[in-house]
Design brief:
This protein has seven helices and two strands, in the order H-H-H-E-E-H-H-H-H. With 184 residues, the chain is mainly α. The radius of gyration is 16 Å and the shape is globular.
Length: 184
């Protein structure tokens, strides 16, 4: 799921034009480039965990500030480092994470989901139709549904309150609404 997510996000990112980085995204206050910067920060932190290093958050005003040079090349470099680190890790190994000890598989679940959800966010900012695969939606619900609502949603959670999906919405659109997003 995680490897496919790296490709999924990268494929959306590859469709960006030079003049689109300041386009608004569905993430409040973020542009397309902020979405890329956020994802790159997550990948960098995840790579640190996979290497057995303590992850650090960059001290930047906006997520976009971490992107060094061409956004697609920057993402590609971090994705490649993440793949290399993951290739040497056992999914059953336990690592210290910001959320406490987790197996590598557990630690990758949310970042994998993030790659797809933020791929959708980026697609919205770029005007690209992005559909999240059904197996990813099922995986996300399997991992996220046990988390209490108050821990998952709101200012400290990963998602906003669930939005309404339009009549006849696709499974992807219903999932996106479940994460609190609506198309721009």
């Amino acid at each position: 799921m995680f490897y496919r997510g790296l490709d999924f996000f990268g494929d959306v990112l590859a469709q960006a034009g030079d003049g689109q980085w300041d386009n608004p995204s569905p993430c409040e206050g973020w542009t397309a480039l902020d979405v890329v910067g956020h994802l790159c920060t997550s990948l960098d932190m995840g790579t640190s965990i996979l290497k057995g290093e303590q992850p650090t958050r960059p001290d930047v005003a906006n997520p976009r500030d971490v992107v060094d040079g061409d956004p697609a090349a920057y993402y590609g470099s971090l994705a490649a480092s993440c793949r290399t680190a993951l290739a040497g890790a056992s999914l059953d190994d336990v690592r210290d994470t910001p959320m406490g000890p987790r197996t590598v598989a557990q630690g990758l679940a949310f970042p994998a989901i993030d790659l797809y959800v933020h791929g959708w966010d980026l697609g919205q900012a770029l005007g690209v139709d992005v559909q999240i695969p059904d197996d990813v939606i099922a995986f996300a619900h399997e991992y996220l549904d046990p988390i209490p609502e108050d821990a998952m949603r709101g200012p400290q959670g990963a998602f906003a309150a669930e939005a309404d999906a339009a009549d006849g919405a696709t499974a992807s659109d219903r999932f996106i609404a479940w994460t609190g997003r609506t198309p721009l």
